[in-house]
Amino acid sequence: MKDFTGLTLRGVGGGPYCCLMFFFALFFIFPILGHADQLVGDMTVRVQGQGRTDSPKEKSPPDERLLADDNFRRLTDTLYNEACITDGVMAIGTVKRDINDVTDKKLDREINYTWCKKGKQSIKKSPGPRFTHLESIRIKTYTGSGAPNHRKSTQAFLAPTSQPNTSQLERLQDDPQALMRQLEALSQELSAGTYQMSINSWVLIDQQVDQSDWSTDVCENKTTSESFYWRTTVPGQPEKTAQGSSQNGPETTLSAPPGGRGLVASWELTLDPKEFAGSTLVDESRPAFKGGYKEKISAGWSFRPAAPCDRVKNAIHHGLAYAEAYTDPGPRRQSNDSYLCYVDRAAYVILHHGQPAPYSCDKPRKPDEGAEIEIGVDGNCELQHEQEYLDKMAGQCAPEGETTGILAHEAVHVEQCRHDQQRYNSPDNDYWGDTEVRAHLAGVRVMHDWMRENCPDDILPLEQRMQRIENTWRNSR
């Protein structure tokens, strides 16, 4: 096998050569961007295609007439993901994959004439029988029950396109200290330059197929059809075939679990540790015939240095806004089903300095299809999705102060649930609000302590505001 240096690894052995290869792997398979530096940003890969999927019929047989030969496919497949680059290693944050793949076909032909028997006579009928094939294919990202976490099925890799001077390094393999100094120098050179970005994603797809063949018997003045339908069920279920009929003919419905679709793209980019962004055409296919299906893949990216102090500061503002919103008696007077929506609205007003929220709570908000499951405490007092949350936050370059603050928030909920599980699971807005005030303030305190230690010049004067929120909460109980 070959590593990124282009040297062949023939096995695991001892001696200086083994040490040399270890250092190559350490410094060049994972290029250094400054040991403490992080770049945070996002990437978008978009596949767009359109055109006929097969060539049109150039000429009809002499005994028939072509009435329609329509065939068109239109595809958009967009992959968006957050990412954090730490020492050249890329972690993936939130991932969204949106597929919209539509194909419509219609082949309609008519025989010029036919002979119909009427007793002992044959009568010429013109036009003759008509045959119509209709097909509709609709494919989108599967978001139903059992849909996988798209972040877990998405990987991204960053590797330098330049090659190190291996002959020079081999001459230094007997001097480990000199070799280390040379490797460190080379690794620092890789902090800016041309890199190869590679990304691949795999998702389940929801496929719906409607297909029918119609025929008209002009002698009997009768139209018959045969139809086939494909419907997607949930993952893990066996395929099932159901037979039915309509007034025109038989119908077959196949129910099957969702299939899968991958997306792979690789391109070069110029990296600057301070900030870099760009876009490129990754690939483009040519149609096999005039009007045929063609496809192009494009990519865009934007990265900037992570700002841990600003991020924790924003998390503190968010936590305090929600602590204050949960003390508001207005949302508590609403129904239990809409309580959280009214709390969100109150927090929005606080965070946006009095600006009204751009949504209403009169109608239930639709859940975000494909949204990742968030960390939380279930009805059995168990913390759920902790590792998924930590992995996602790593893909956003979230600092330790933010993640430990959120975990402290959830730890309070675990304690509340274990103290009185029945009440914790009851639909009581006042109790719900009280538990959230305590949890948000606990999380904010942990974040504030982290700010004091790591961002002393940017510390927020929070004590008075936190005390005011606590006093409001206690007075309302």
Walk me through this protein's architecture.
The chain is an alpha+beta fold and 477 residues long. The chain folds into two domains: 33-173 and 195-305, no CATH class; 308-476, no CATH class. Helices cover 30% and strands 37% of the residues. The protein has eleven helices and 16 strands. It has helices at residues 16-29, 166-171, 176-189, 308-327, 329-332, 339-351, 386-394, 400-419, 421-424, 429-454, 463-476; strands at residues 38-51, 64-86, 89-111, 114-118, 121-125, 130-141, 154-160, 193-217, 222-232, 240-246, 249-256, 259-271, 276-284, 294-305, 376-377, 383-384. Strands 1, 2, 3, 6, 7, 8, 9, 10, 11, 12, 13 and 14 form a twelve-stranded mixed beta sheet that branches. Strands 4-5 form a two-stranded antiparallel sheet. A hairpin with a 2-residue loop joins β4 and β5 (121-125). α1 (16-29) packs parallel to α3 (176-189), α4 packs parallel to α11 and α8 runs antiparallel to α10 (429-454). It is elongated and about 105 Å long.
